[in-house]
């Protein structure tokens, strides 16, 4: 898969390519005073390849979303003029336009690669056989050598972005719209996605519209440049002449124009006396995620005042891990880290740490802790001088929520807050990732200032230009062989351990329709709860324990999964023992407690009952595959597909939000707030997590809608979710158990209705 | 600030109650995030809480309001019919998938608790989203929780326990799930995260720099300050 004919060679009109046009188009989101786009008139002919340039906030993304038909309706904003795809309203041309977004995580919807590819065509109601044809070789064509059942969270950012591209191409669109597709990728990932895009465009003769801050990435492949400024088209033409005319102004506004390097900070001033001071020293350092093998090992590093260290190396080499371990935010597997005062940053209090080491996280939103920009800065520095806000270009933004800043402003603020408390050491994780040229220059200047004040800087980065601009010393981490996940090692995730033979059938639990398993877990409970007595609970529990081995899950796994029930049952029993209905002899009495014959009996019944209700339910639902569960809810139970799939897509984000949560905790420790009690920290953490969740959700919604989600057509399903005889049987057996238990209670005269049994005063 | 949006929203009738894709996905993700918080809460609260709680005459209900946040918060954010049930169900699903002592019965709890909040929002015709409505909905969720718990888990409990549990559970729903969710919704609106939702547009207290992303960095601001 090598890239690309020279620019212009592919522009012959192709019957499949889509024509995009806007006539006096404008868009003002609800709640905003100024329109994001105004009076946009342009036509992009079928097969053209266009690069759209402009400062951040110039309306580029909105334009792409308008062509993709995902801007929303009257609820979302006011529209003027019109916009068309092949002469039709974009909403009526679903599937003609494919949209790929910046964040690879937001572009993927389902847990497994193959399922995710099918998502778009399924939404558009493409017949299953046709989908299978489309997907044959789809991963290969974007240069992905992975199995169709590969779990998407295990892929690197670059791989995820190519998978997302394949998912968009599966719509068989006539135009491909890319919104900064390389901004969050490392250099290797950038090349791969460009190659994959150009190959697809060549093969299908697609119309291509790309937004990117870095012009050089796409310049060889495009034949037209459109420049937007504050929602209006200000230049439009062939790349050479537009860049010649607008290049300087664009560079000024932050676009990376070839031949116009950013302003570099002045080189380091000659060594002051302090420069020899060692500010941070690591020996024999090894670190990795908790409970896993170390990712980096045998690191020896001495960082002196006035020095900049760049941690480099390919993706997955452990740059971020090392940076966080040096900052005392990740546990070390081996080795030592000491600061100038001889303390270990991993052991000091959070407040002390914030004075020793300033940390800039990859995502600035992980480290915001205050309601306003001014309060963010005040956290470390106390009084915030107006000059500092000015210096950051945030003079008018002091009272704004930090989350409301633009991407570049957030990044600058995060660096400023990290150095606000005046720590000697500044540690940054990919500070310039995805930043425009202006922000880049401002960041380089901020970091250089810290260096020239006699501070030390350690930064994990891919950015060669930054390394050169700051005169950084490079510590190159070697590539690591890709980690073998349990998946790849051959163990299916839902498997219950060693089974009888190598070719045995999968255990019953995995063959059941997930809805059948759920119903078999829940229905008996609904029958059993009618009575509270020992006989029914004991009979049900005994029968269930006899039947559970049939599920094909080995005993040890079963005990481990149901452990919470075994703990909860005696606790519930204890409550009833103390506060249950009293009858017969009373053995003890104090305050509200009354232990009697009655409460003892009810307590025993409660323990058995909680076990009888909880164990089968947990055993049948444990480790349910979310995608299969969703398929079954929508196909078997006929729940609304939009809601089921929305929930399934959101559940895929669970892992992501979990790592957000851990990162938020680390950031709070780095910022000096980690000493507070857990309960006091929780509200701030929850709020930050919700902000991240909603942002991720909003981006995911755009990506899903661009892949036809919510289209008013009957959806198809590539994964059928049949209800078989075995499902009916499992459900019948489960209900029978409950019925037998109830009959036993009635027959022995033990039936004790929960409604009549209780005296409510 | 709110002036440009008010005249139109009155005429918005049915459209106001229609679920957009962004409503569905954000409601789902909020549900998942709340489920994750449940999990963190479990780790914090359970080891001591449930052992200690077992000894109490029903006042353990006063912390159970935490379980009811999912429905109220989701409804306050997306403001669509069914949002309370849906949000609570998604959060419950996450809880069940992580593995807790209730397993899929958590889904049943989620349904009943969400329904309690949903009924309140429905009785208010999906028009009231203030702090009172939020607390009533939280209390409604509390009613659902209390009924189900007394039937399912505390069926043998005496009248005293049942009464104490009911009062503390409902009050906890109103305060933890109602008041705290409302405060969280307001705080979220201030961050700009809710700008695509009615919840994010009703604040009138923010500074005037809302359209900032239009101009990005500051020097551009100054340059074009006059034209704005």
Automatic annotation (TrEMBL), chain A:
Domain ABC transporter per the UniProt entry, residue ranges: 20-255, 280-506
Keyword annotations from UniProtKB, A to Z: ATP-binding, Membrane, Nucleotide-binding, Transmembrane, Transmembrane helix, Transport
Protein name stated in the entry: Energy-coupling factor transport system ATP-binding protein
Broad class of the protein's primary localization: membrane
Chain segments annotated as transmembrane: 515-543, 563-580, 600-622, 729-748
Positions of region (Disordered): 479-501
One Pfam family named in its UniProt record: CbiQ
Source organism: Microcella alkaliphila
Record-stated family: Belongs to the ABC transporter superfamily.
UniProt lineage: Bacteria, Bacillati, Actinomycetota, Actinomycetes, Micrococcales
Compartments where located: Membrane
CDD domains: ABC_cobalt_CbiO_domain1 (cd03225), EcfT (cd16914)
GO CC term, one of those recorded: ATP-binding cassette (ABC) transporter complex
Molecular-function GO terms, alphabetical: ATP binding; ATP hydrolysis activity; ATPase-coupled transmembrane transporter activity
UniProtKB/TrEMBL annotation, chain B:
Ranges annotated as spanning the membrane: 21-41, 105-126, 133-154, 160-184
Protein species of origin: Microcella alkaliphila
Keyword terms: Membrane, Transmembrane, Transmembrane helix
Pfam families: ABC_cobalt (PF09819)
Highest taxon of the lineage: Bacteria
Segments of this protein annotated with the region Disordered: 200-228
Protein name: Energy-coupling factor transport system substrate-specific component
């Amino acid at each position: 898969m090598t890239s690309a004919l020279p620019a212009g060679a592919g522009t012959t009109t192709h019957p499949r390519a889509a024509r995009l046009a806007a006539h006096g188009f404008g868009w003002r989101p609800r709640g905003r005073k100024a329109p994001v786009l105004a009076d946009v008139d342009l036509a992009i002919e079928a097969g053209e390849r266009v690069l759209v340039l402009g400062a951040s906030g110039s309306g580029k993304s909105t334009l792409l979303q308008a062509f993709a038909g995902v801007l929303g309706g009257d609820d979302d904003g006011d529209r003027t003029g019109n916009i068309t795809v092949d002469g039709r309203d974009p909403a009526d041309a679903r599937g003609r336009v494919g949209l790929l977004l910046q964040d690879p995580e937001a572009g993927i919807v389902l847990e497994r690669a193959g399922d995710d590819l099918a998502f778009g065509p399924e939404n558009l109601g493409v017949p299953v056989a046709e989908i299978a044809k489309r997907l044959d070789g789809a991963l290969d064509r974007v240069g992905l050598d992975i199995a169709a059942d590969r779990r998407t969270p295990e892929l690197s950012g670059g791989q995820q972005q190519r998978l997302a591209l394949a998912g968009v191409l599966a719509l068989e669109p006539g135009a491909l719209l890319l919104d900064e597709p390389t901004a969050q990728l490392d250099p290797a990932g950038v090349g791969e996605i460009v190659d994959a895009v150009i190959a697809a465009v060549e093969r299908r003769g697609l119309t291509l519209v790309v937004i990117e801050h870095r012009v050089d990435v796409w310049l060889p492949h495009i034949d037209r440049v459109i420049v937007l400024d504050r929602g209006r088209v200000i230049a439009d033409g062939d790349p050479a002449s537009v860049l010649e005319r607008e290049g300087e102004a664009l560079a000024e506004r932050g676009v990376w124009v070839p031949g116009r390097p950013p302003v570099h900070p002045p080189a380091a001033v000659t060594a002051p006396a302090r420069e020899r001071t060692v500010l941070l020293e690591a020996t024999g350092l090894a670190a990795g995620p908790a409970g896993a093998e170390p990712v980096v090992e045998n690191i020896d590093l001495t960082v002196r005042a006035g020095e900049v260290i760049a941690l480099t190396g390919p993706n997955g080499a452990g740059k971020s891990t090392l940076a966080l371990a040096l900052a005392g935010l990740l546990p070390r597997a081996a080795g030592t880290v000491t600061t100038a005062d001889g303390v270990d940053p991993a052991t000091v209090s959070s407040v002390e740490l914030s004075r020793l080491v300033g940390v800039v996280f990859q995502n600035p939103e992980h480290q915001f802790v205050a309601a306003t920009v001014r309060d963010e800065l005040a956290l470390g520095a106390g009084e915030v001088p107006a000059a500092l806000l000015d210096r950051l270009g945030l003079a008018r933004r002091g009272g704004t929520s930090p989350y409301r800043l633009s991407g570049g402003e957030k990044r600058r603020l995060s660096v400023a807050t990290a150095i606000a408390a005046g720590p000697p050491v500044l540690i940054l994780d990919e500070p310039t990732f995805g930043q425009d040229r202006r922000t880049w220059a401002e960041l380089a200047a901020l970091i250089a200032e810290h260096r020239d004040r006699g501070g030390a800087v350690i930064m994990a980065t891919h950015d060669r230009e930054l390394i050169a601009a700051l005169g950084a010393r490079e510590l190159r981490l070697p590539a690591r062989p890709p980690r073998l996940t349990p998946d790849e090692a051959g163990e299916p995730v839902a498997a219950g351990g060693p089974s009888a033979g190598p070719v045995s059938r999968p255990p019953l639990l995995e063959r059941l329709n997930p809805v059948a398993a759920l119903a078999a877990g829940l229905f008996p409970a609904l029958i059993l709860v009618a009575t509270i007595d020992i006989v029914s609970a004991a009979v049900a529990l005994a029968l269930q324990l006899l039947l559970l081995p049939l599920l094909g899950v080995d005993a040890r796994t079963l005990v481990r999964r149901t452990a919470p029930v075994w703990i909860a049952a005696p606790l519930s029993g204890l409550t009833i023992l103390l506060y249950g209905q009293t009858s017969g002899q009373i053995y003890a009495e104090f305050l509200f407690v009354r232990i009697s014959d009655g409460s003892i009996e009810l307590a025993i019944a409660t323990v058995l009952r909680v076990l009888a209700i909880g164990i089968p339910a947990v055993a049948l639902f444990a480790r349910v595959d979310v995608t299969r569960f969703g398929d079954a809810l929508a196909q078997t139970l006929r729940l609304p597909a939009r809601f089921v799939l929305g929930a399934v897509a959101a559940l895929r984000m669970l892992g992501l939000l979990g790592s957000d949560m851990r990162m938020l905790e680390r950031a709070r420790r780095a910022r000096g707030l980690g000493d507070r009690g857990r309960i006091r920290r929780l509200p701030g953490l929850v709020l930050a997590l919700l902000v991240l969740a909603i942002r991720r959700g909003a981006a995911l919604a755009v990506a899903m809608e661009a892949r036809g989600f919510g289209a008013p057509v009957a959806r198809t399903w590539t994964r059928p979710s049949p209800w078989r005889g075995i499902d009916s049987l499992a459900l019948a057996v489960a209900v029978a158990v409950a019925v037998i238990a109830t009959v036993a209670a009635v027959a022995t005269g033990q039936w004790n209705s929960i409604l009549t049994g209780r005296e409510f005063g | 600030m709110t002036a440009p949006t008010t005249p139109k929203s009155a005429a918005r009738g049915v459209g106001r109650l229609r679920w957009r894709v962004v409503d569905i996905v954000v409601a789902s993700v909020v549900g998942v995030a709340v489920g994750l918080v449940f999990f963190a809460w479990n780790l914090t609260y359970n080891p001591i809480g449930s052992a200690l709680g077992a000894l109490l005459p029903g006042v353990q209900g006063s912390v159970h309001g935490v379980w009811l946040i999912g429905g109220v918060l989701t409804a306050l954010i997306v403001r669509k019919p069914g949002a309370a049930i849906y949000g609570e169900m998604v959060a419950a699903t996450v809880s069940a998938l992580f593995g807790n002592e209730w397993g899929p019965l958590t889904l049943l709890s989620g349904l009943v608790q969400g329904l309690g909040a949903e009924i309140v929002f429905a009785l208010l015709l999906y028009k009231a989203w203030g702090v009172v409505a939020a607390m009533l909905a939280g209390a409604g969720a509390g009613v659902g929780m209390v009924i189900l718990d007394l039937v399912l888990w505390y069926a043998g409990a005496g009248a005293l326990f049942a009464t104490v549990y009911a009062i503390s559970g409902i009050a906890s729903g109103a305060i933890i799930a109602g008041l705290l969710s409302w405060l969280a919704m307001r705080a979220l609106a201030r961050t700009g995260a809710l700008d695509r939702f009615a919840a994010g547009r009703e604040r009138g207290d923010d500074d005037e720099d809302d359209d900032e992303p239009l101009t990005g960095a500051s020097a551009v601001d100054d340059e074009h300050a006059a034209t704005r």
